[in-house]
Amino acid sequence: MLVLSRKQGEVIVIGDDVTVTVLEVQGNRVKLGFTAPDEMPIRRQELHPRVERCQPALAPRTVLPGWRQTDGRSIAARA
Q1: Mean pLDDT, residues 46-59 taken together
Q2: I need a surface site. Which of 4, 14, 31, 63 has the fewest CB within 10 A?
Q3: 43 and 56 in contact (C-beta within 8 Å)?
Q4: Stated pTM of the model
Q5: Taken in order 44, 46, 50, 56, is the CA torsion positive or negative?
Q6: Which of 31, 19, 37, 23 is nearest to 73 (CA)?
Q7: How many Å separate Cα 51 from the centre of its chain?
Q8: What count of other Cβ atoms lies within 10 Å of the Cβ of residue 11?
Q9: Beta carbons of 19 and 32 less than 8 angstroms apart
Q10: Distance of alpha carbon 24 from its chain centroid, rounded?
Q11: Got the DSSP string for 14-39?
Q12: Alpha carbons 69 and 6: distance in angstroms, whole number
């Protein structure tokens, strides 16, 4: 495991396509922003097993109405 210290506004780059930005730090909570290709799902660890059980890997993606990323693109979810 790689452990990094970052301040608010600083960015971590993973590979060529993924960035993680520290958006806010309040007490013991950190708000992170992720930018990744649409085909790369990003979810909290505690939801991952449940999503994999409920949604087959090959299910088509649909756009969730009203959900937008900070860059304005629609957030897609598996149907």
Answers
A1: 63
A2: 4
A3: no
A4: 0.60
A5: positive
A6: 37
A7: 14
A8: 11
A9: no
A10: 15
A11: ETTTEEEEEEEEETTEEEEEEE--TT
A12: 22
- Tokens 């629609």 appear where? 74
Which single residue is written with the structure tokens 């649909």?
Answer: 62
| Token pair listed for 28 | 């013991």
The residue ranges of every structural domain in the chain are: 1-36, 38-79
Inter-residue contact 41 to 31 (CB < 8 Å): no
Structure tokens that stand for 3 in this block:
């452990």
User: Cα 78 from chain centroid?
Assistant: 14
User: Around Cβ 64, how many Cβ atoms within 10 Å?
Assistant: 11
Task: Please provide the size of the chain in residues.
Answer: 79
Tokens found for residue 79:
């149907």
Q: Each residue of 14-49: pLDDT tens digit?
A: 999 999 999 999 999 999 999 999 888 888 887 766
61 sits in which H/E element: strand 61-68
